[in-house]
Amino acid sequence: MTRIKVCGITREEDAERAAELGVDALGFVFYAQSPRAVSPERAREIIRCLPPFVVAVGVFVDSPVSQVLSVVEICRLGAVQLHGSEDPDSCSRLPVKVIKSFRVRGDAFPEEILRYNVDAILLDTFRPGLPGGTGSTFPWEIARRAKAYGRIIVAGGLNSGNVRQAIQEAAPYAVDVSSGVESEPGRKDPERMAEFVRKVKDPCRS
User: Fold this and answer.
1) Which residues does 184 contact at the CB level (< 8 Å), separation at least 6?
2) Which domains does the chain have, with CATH numbers?
3) I want to staple 153 with a disulfide (CB 3.0 to 4.6 A). Which of 60, 117, 122, 175 is the partner?
4) Alpha carbon separation from 133 to 52, 117, 160, 162, 169 (Å, rounded)
């Protein structure tokens, strides 16, 4: 079964609804320039509402290792997702599960994946000036090729209308959605979340 992560959580009600729907992981963005950014203190309040088997993932962009470690401790994160130019050594120094993000440019395979030994690889679409959350898709066959190097998470422009196709073409470990289930940045729409989860978990139904 393909796992589901909903990213950019900023409200308790969205986190609780996602958990009720059976979402596997929730992402909390610690990148001040993102419209979905939250403080560690705010994220901790939301994470306290989560049931024990929903993983809280901290999203960082070129944060110092010391800062990441501090937020991990404050929020009791189960994993971190790194969207900047973090090198393999920085990734190996973190005492939690590490998801490293790579941006796909056109139809080119991101060869830098080969340098990293991490718990999962997230593929998103390249757009100048944006470390992630582009809202655009990339050729999903690249994700299928990348499976030779680890667990693959597909992100970028996913919604209930295309997630089944993404799963069919990429066969990923997980899918990651943010804007595709929102009514506005940082505010998740319960109906859109429910439809997205249904399309992933029940592929035989229309």
Assistant:
1) none
2) 3-200 (3.20.20.70)
3) 122
4) 27, 23, 17, 16, 21
The catalytically annotated residue of 7, 75, 91, 176 is 7
Active site residue 204: no
User: 201 with 193: CB under 8 angstroms?
Assistant: no
Catalytic residue list contains 75: no
Out of 14, 75, 124, 176, pick the active-site residue.
Answer: 124
Note if the pTM is more than 0.85. Answer: yes
20 neighbors 194 (Cβ within 8 angstroms): no
The tens-digit pLDDT sequence of the chain (206 residues) is 999 999 999 999 999 999 999 999 999 999 999 999 999 999 999 999 999 999 999 999 999 999 999 999 999 999 999 999 999 999 999 999 999 999 999 889 999 999 999 999 999 987 655 655 566 799 999 999 999 999 999 999 999 999 999 999 999 999 999 999 999 999 999 999 999 999 999 866 65
- Distance between start and end Cα atoms, the chain: 18
